[in-house]
Fold YpdA family putative bacillithiol disulfide reductase.
Amino acid sequence: MDTSTLDILIIGAGPIGLACGLEAQKAGLSYLIIEKGTLVNSLYNYPLNMTFFSTSEKLEIGGIPFVSVHPKPNRMEAMEYYRRVADSQNLNVHLFEGVEHMESEGEAYRIRTSKGEYVARHVIIAVGFYGIPNMLNIPGEELPKVRHYYLDPHYYYRQKVVVVGANNSSADAALETWRKGAEVTMVVRQPELGRIKYWTKPDLENRIKEGSIKCYFSSSLTEIREREVDIQTPEGKVTIENDFVLAMTGYQPDFSFLQKIGVKLSEDEKRYPQYDTESMETNLPNVYLAGVICGGMDTHVWFIENSREHAIKIVKHIAREQDVEKA
């Protein structure tokens, strides 16, 4: 290996990927963060008006203070914070550069991206789960009127909108589009609303109770057409006029890269990747996982606040290994 070999290559420039870069920097290790999209790409895809469950201090990385107007920051404040971290700490980040191939090369790994090639002794995979939406798998889902990502409510002014889902993103989309003049119908598979922020849930319950937002519980969307949709309810099929469908059915990590490079996944529907909980090292030597990807399909297990410690664990393990080699 020549001097151009990196100590660590980090895949993913979300908060946890940045945290890994900060820890590598503190340890005096050479590193590079590669990101297929923009900085904190998952956060960028959140709704414009989204407010975090967590307080700002729980979203901090690298011990760098996160100051926000309210205790629970919003999307814009979070993106500003992580940009400031990247700039103030001069993090080595390459954006809009997707990883295409990775293979072992002696005691290191060669990584080919859309813009170049790198060799690294260690690889940290810190990708999020916003890349692949959970599909409805019904006729008409391919129509342009169907959206799996919700950004701004103004777009749906005076439109007939169906929101599919029972949790946070569904509640926000329903309330915000209704307040901006949309006619909103919710379709909820469960008999009641799900996991929703405590300051949002009563608002939505009251809108449903008063009839401002129509909600079909224990129901499912069965077909989407250009100007209408079919909803299967406990009382039978209902057809309503419709302009847009917001399928807020959640997302899942892209496991194809893990499978391609040989990281073992559980064979059940949870798809848990194999890794050591102390070092975060996978079954592949010197390949580590950090952040939400560690939870497989259980995307609500790991958050910024409880997975930022992954960065510390991983870099400590790598640094100890480096010290042993030098001894």
Summary: The chain has seven helices and 17 strands. The mean pLDDT is 93.
